[in-house]
Amino acid sequence: MTSQLSINAAWILLIISFITLMTAYHLPEGNVLLFTAVLNIFFLQSFSHIGQTVIFKGYTPGRVFFSTAAQL
Question: Which residue, 9, 10, 37, is CA-closest to 23?
């Protein structure tokens, strides 16, 4: 289970890194719509972790990171 999570997290990192690099590379004439959409999806997805914690009444992976990042 942990190896699957690691592989999925690595793919997410690679995809977001690629989108970020392409947005930065084409910034003067490029369109930042895809980059903004990806950031919005991750922002909205964080609320699903909070909802799962309330529904399951327990720890949900991703909730601790979101709480820690929000405090920074």
Answer: 37
Question: Which amino acid, 41?
Answer: I
| 1-8 own/partner pairs: CB under 8 Å, 24+ apart | 5/61
Q: Can you tell me whether residue 64 is helix, strand or coil?
A: helix
CA distance 61 to 57: 13
10-residue mean pLDDT series, the chain (72 residues): 76 85 78 82 79 76 51 47
Q: Which residue has the tokens 């995809």?
A: 15
Between CA 37 and CA 28 the distance in angstroms is 19
Q: Which helix (H) or strand (E) holds 15?
A: helix 2-25
Give the count of beta carbons closer than 10 Å to the beta carbon of residue 63. 15
